[in-house]
Write a structure and sequence with these properties.
two-stranded antiparallel ribbon; 12 strands; 221 residues; alpha/beta; eight-stranded parallel sheet; TIM Barrel
């Protein structure tokens, strides 16, 4: 089984940082293959420019959209298409959003559970979330964006059980901020996980680039 992959998110408090381009420029030669940021925080032209730069550097790109209404989620999906990203993460699931993704070969990983607020909070039961995930997968989504460490219940148990029961790629997104949580993610065998704020808060020690490489090395060893 492959180790989970880190998705570096140039975001803090669920918004893209203003100097995202500069940070990526400094960190583009690190071990991280997957890079992304949120739909909020940068002007659209800057978003397109940064995603193009990431792709020129051979990175897999992801836009994570923190939106809950159908109108906002459709706008986020269209933004992802226009930015030419590989993956759309987040949004409440809507058939309309799924159709945009399918028509444009965009890998769609919607939220499951009851997701509210910003930064996001996750509520719901494991059973409800697994049932939701299976329904969305039957409709052709690529995988699921699980806000495991934003869960109001037992996050570790949720992550492990959810990944075990869902037959599709799962990204554990949000609040991954310690080596203990990296151990839990490896044990759960998620497809990917995101880190954004923890790098800005220096939770893994060192420069932004050094922290990325530390996490990548830790996950692979």
């Amino acid at each position: 089984m492959k180790n989970p992959e880190l998705i570096v998110m140039l975001t803090h408090h669920d918004r893209t940082v203003s100097n995202a381009y500069e940070i990526f420029s400094q960190c583009k030669d690190t071990s991280a293959k997957f890079w992304g940021f949120k739909e909020d925080g940068l002007p659209f032209d800057e978003m397109k420019k940064l995603f193009a730069f990431m792709k020129d550097c051979g990175k897999v790109t992801a836009l994570e959209v923190v939106a809950y209404t159908e109108k906002e989620c459709i706008e986020g999906a269209k933004m992802a298409v226009n930015c030419g990203v590989n993956i759309l993460m987040g949004t409440t699931f809507f058939d309309s959003v799924n159709e945009i993704c399918r028509e444009n070969n965009l890998k769609y990983l919607p939220f499951v559970g009851k997701v509210t607020e910003r930064p996001s909070i996750l509520n719901g039961t494991l059973e409800e979330m697994v049932d939701e995930a299976r329904e969305y997968i039957s409709k052709g989504v690529y995988g699921i964006n699980l806000l495991g460490y934003r869960y109001t219940g037992d996050a570790t148990a949720l992550n492990e059980s959810f990944v075990a029961q869902v037959n599709a790629p799962v990204c554990l997104a949000g609040s991954v901020n310690s080596y203990q949580r990296l151990d839990e993610i490896k044990k759960a065998a998620a497809w990917t996980f995101t880190i954004g704020g923890a790098f800005f808060e220096n939770k893994f020690g060192g420069t932004f680039a050094e922290q990325i490489n530390k996490v990548c090395d830790y996950i692979r060893n």
